[in-house]
Amino acid sequence: MKIEKTNRISLVEQVVSQMESLIESGAWAVGTRLPPEMELMERFDVSRNTLREAVRALVHGGLLQTKQGSGTRVCSSSVLGAAIERRLHKSNLLETLEVRHALEREAARLAAVRRSEEDVQQLRLQMDACLKAIQANDHQAYVEADIQLHQVIAAASHNNLLIDLYEHMTDALHSSVRNLVELTSCTDVHQRIHGKLVDGIIAQNEDGAAEAVNEYMAHLKETLSKSLEEL
Amino acid sequence: MKIEKTNRISLVEQVVSQMESLIESGAWAVGTRLPPEMELMERFDVSRNTLREAVRALVHGGLLQTKQGSGTRVCSSSVLGAAIERRLHKSNLLETLEVRHALEREAARLAAVRRSEEDVQQLRLQMDACLKAIQANDHQAYVEADIQLHQVIAAASHNNLLIDLYEHMTDALHSSVRNLVELTSCTDVHQRIHGKLVDGIIAQNEDGAAEAVNEYMAHLKETLSKSLEEL
DNA sequence: CACCTCAAAATTGTAGGATGATTGGTTCGT
DNA sequence: ACGAACCAATCATCCTACAATTTTGAGGTG
């Protein structure tokens, strides 16, 4: 006979779960303002205290944000993302870049092995977008296309955990990354390395793709240290 | 003049911060039972609701665990660790191993570049521990020494973010890893690769260390797929 | 003494109400 | 039209009370 363990789930955790589902499913999209506490109390059929404890848990988790007198809003849809973001604030840019390097290299290797035909198509598409941005000399568009391209590469690894971590890291880094990419984008080097990376993945050349990532990150780190020297 | 309106920190968050500090500092070590709510109310000078919201936030964050009628206990000392652990439950072992591969390879490369003399000493010490465990044919001790060795390698990278991520991943994986290592530890291959890895780091041979990690992970993945076939 | 039973104490869980503080919009006077 | 004063909505904090659960210990029984 199996003893019923702590199967008792507190009301608060039940409410938290339901709210998390609503947020992750997009029913409560990022930016949405939640109904006031009174309505939520009725909706979940719990007391004020219970509801507030649930909301507070999500606030501390980084998914919600409350403002006295104004209301409660959704400010993120991922617990992991919020946790990583908080941790990254305590790290310097170089540390973060090194971890990104690790993830991106592995993503490139896996992508080279596992990329599907759709992945290849997506890669070509994003490369075109980069090229067009360069020809139009539109830095803003290039930065966006660049970030997108790297997301596509990560996606081609078909490792959901890796994709998640990578996405959250670049999310948290987006401002710094944008600046860095903007600094480097003026050179042809950047785009040449992109080409080598994408070609490697398409040709299923694992080592070639990994080597391209190494070059890419070396270039990024160099630019970073140069821009730091200027200060 | 910069207006800092958002400087208003809620009482709950203040209490949460203090408790987090107590936990991270070790004043409330993992496993410790917290004082009852009444005492904490007086200690932090807040009402029961406020205190409970703070506790609930930490419970949901994975740092605390409450049991009605029994009390509240510390069950983890890191928010990031708890978040990663939860995410890992949704991933399969292969995905997790691949990410660990990425982190460990980067750690080895950085360690080869940055290892200090103390690091070298620590590495030699842990290698000895592994050897002794093998000679004593003590599997339990070998597994522990193996995990310790890899932690030392990560530490030698001198990248705190990387160290954190790696530690939390292996923490969350500990049971699976223990089993895997136990399966592989009977062969000499495992120890030979360890030797190559440590030698590479000590000799500051970046590529050699990275190659050793590749071999190590390949061996681990092979063992994993074999053990999965048996089911 | 050893062991079981059960009641009481300790502790967290849930409910409901009251008041203060902040925000955003509205109204009103100029 | 513009700014100041007001007002309503909303969250923040505190309080009390009771329920549910676990631990503890007293008392009985063999």
TrEMBL record, chains A, B:
Query: Which SMART domains does UniProt cross-reference here?
Result: FCD, HTH_GNTR
Q: Report the superkingdom from the record.
A: Bacteria
HTH gntR-type domain ranges (all copies): 9-77
What UniProt keywords apply to this chain's record, in alphabetical order? Answer: DNA-binding, Transcription, Transcription regulation
Q: Matching InterPro entries, A to Z?
A: GntR_C, TF_FadR/GntR_C, Tscrpt_reg_HTH_GntR, WH-like_DNA-bd_sf, WH_DNA-bd_sf
Under the GO molecular function aspect, what terms does this record hold?
A: DNA binding; DNA-binding transcription factor activity
- A single Pfam family, by name? GntR
Q: Indicate what this protein is called per its UniProt record.
A: FCD domain-containing protein
